[in-house]
């Protein structure tokens, strides 16, 4: 079958995907070992039998709902190509809101910062790519995810210090100019846990107690023990949690508390500054 006809067939088969056309092209490129431009310039190309067998295996995985990031083993975030696996969350574009907010609040001088619950290392590596002079730490509870973050760090040539442990446990005695995190924040009863890509992602990276607020509150309460005076805490959270998260920041004593909206216009990141002398 010619490549142009095969593309049309695959788009029809993958029609339930919101990105059927893109999925088709990415799967073809993976099997053929060619760039996307090849699909346009060689419509008459005919894949061989082995390539068609390999393609069908990938298509069946997608038809079963498996995320493209898991099928391809990689996902782009902040223009970085990250290795991904079932041990971590798949980096989302909305999380770039957190990266942008962090970059705009870091001091001009070299700073120290930590990403808690780093997963693939996406946030930490994005910040390191923009701030090579900074000392960037990353903490991850899951050993497989921590190893994945280290591989991404090495492969991208972006040195970060990855520690395995729960939240602040591996950071005793350290203080940071900034703490960032995209922690679990979904309520266990949320019906979205049974739909889409999240079905294939680890529940431990998604679900938190207290209607999704438990880990957010833990970080808000404990972060001041690890922040420099005037240091920032930035947290990603659910689109309906902004009010509750801001209240927790204020009650703990943070200043300059505000929530920022994501690409879809929803409150997604709340931040606050731990007071130094100039903020008291």
Automatic annotation (TrEMBL):
Release factor glutamine methyltransferase N-terminal domain location: 8-73
Keyword field: Methyltransferase, S-adenosyl-L-methionine, Transferase
Catalytic reactions on record: L-glutaminyl-[peptide chain release factor] + S-adenosyl-L-methionine = N(5)-methyl-L-glutaminyl-[peptide chain release factor] + S-adenosyl-L-homocysteine + H(+)
Binding site for S-adenosyl-L-methionine: 117-121, 140, 167, 182
The species this protein was found in: Zobellella aerophila
GO terms for MF: methyltransferase activity
Binding locations of substrate: 182-185
Family matches, as SUPFAM superfamilies: S-adenosyl-L-methionine-dependent methyltransferases
The keyword Transcription regulation belongs to this UniProt entry's keyword annotation: no
Gene3D superfamilies, alphabetized: DNA helicase RuvA subunit, C-terminal domain (1.10.8.10), Vaccinia Virus protein VP39 (3.40.50.150)
Protein name in UniProt: Release factor glutamine methyltransferase
EC number: 2.1.1.297
GO BP term, example: methylation
Task of the protein: Methylates the class 1 translation termination release factors RF1/PrfA and RF2/PrfB on the glutamine residue of the universally conserved GGQ motif.
Pfam families: MTS (PF05175), PrmC_N (PF17827)
Keyword Transferase listed: yes
Family the entry assigns: Belongs to the protein N5-glutamine methyltransferase family. PrmC subfamily.
Methyltransferase small domain residues: 103-189
């Amino acid at each position: 079958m010619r490549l142009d006809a095969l593309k049309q067939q695959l788009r029809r088969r993958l029609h339930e995907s919101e990105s059927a056309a893109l999925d088709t092209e990415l799967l073809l490129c993976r099997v053929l070992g060619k760039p996307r431009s090849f699909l346009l310039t060689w419509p008459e190309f005919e894949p061989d039998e082995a390539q068609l067998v390999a393609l069908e295996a990938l298509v069946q995985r997608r038809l079963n709902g498996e995320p493209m990031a898991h099928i391809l083993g990689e996902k782009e975030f902040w223009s970085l190509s990250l290795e991904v696996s079932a041990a971590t969350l798949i980096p989302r574009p909305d999380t770039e809101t957190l990266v942008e907010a962090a970059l705009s609040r870091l001091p001009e001088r070299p700073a120290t910062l930590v990403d808690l619950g780093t997963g693939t290392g996406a946030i930490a590596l994005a910040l390191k790519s923009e701030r090579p002079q900074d000392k960037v730490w990353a903490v991850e509870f899951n050993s497989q995810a921590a190893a994945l973050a280290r591989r991404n760090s090495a492969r991208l040539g972006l040195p970060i210090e990855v520690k395995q442990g729960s939240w602040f446990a591996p950071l005793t005695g350290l203080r940071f100019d900034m703490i960032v995190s995209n922690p679990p924040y979904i309520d266990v009863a949320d019906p979205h846990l049974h739909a889409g890509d999240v079905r294939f992602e680890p529940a431990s990276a998604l679900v938190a107690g207290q209607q999704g607020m438990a880990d957010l509150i833990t970080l808000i309460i404990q972060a001041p023990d690890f922040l420099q005076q005037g240091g920032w805490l930035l947290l990603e959270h659910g689109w309906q949690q902004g009010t509750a998260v801001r209240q927790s920041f204020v009650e703990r004593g943070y200043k300059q508390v505000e929530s920022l909206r994501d690409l879809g216009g929803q409150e997604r990141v709340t931040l606050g500054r731990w007071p130094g002398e100039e903020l008291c």
